[in-house]
Design goal:
This protein is α/β, with parallel strands linked by helices. Helices cover 29% and strands 25% of the residues. A hairpin with a 2-residue loop joins β2 and β3.
Length: 103
């Protein structure tokens, strides 16, 4: 079975955990406020011939980490191995959300 490891990044409260729940059938805690995800969480599921591991990272605005949660995400991105990064953005505020994408 082929394995894919995907890191989900994005600003707080853009729907990273909700996206993982919708795709995988997981039940990660979601909320309509910042700070729901304060540590990274891994969800593993299968699709066809793939075993997919999605990493739900705490929200951050840029790679210039200011909070402990942002530091968790920054350290993960710099030190861990993954195959793909998906930057989840809020379509109601694209300009602000693309700062992280540009970095």
């Amino acid at each position: 079975m082929k394995q894919i490891k995907i890191a989900l990044v994005g600003q707080p409260n853009v729907g990273k955990s909700h996206l993982i729940n919708a795709i995988s059938g997981a039940h990660l805690h979601v909320g309509n406020f910042s700070g729901v995800t304060v540590e990274y969480k891994e969800v593993t599921f299968q699709r066809g011939e793939y075993e997919i591991k999605m990493i739900d990272l705490p929200g951050l605005y840029s790679l210039d980490a200011y909070t402990p949660e942002e530091e968790v995400t920054k350290k993960y991105l710099l030190n861990e191995e993954y195959d793909l990064i998906i930057n989840v953005i809020d379509s109601n505020n694209i300009t602000r959300n693309l700062t992280l994408t540009e970095q």
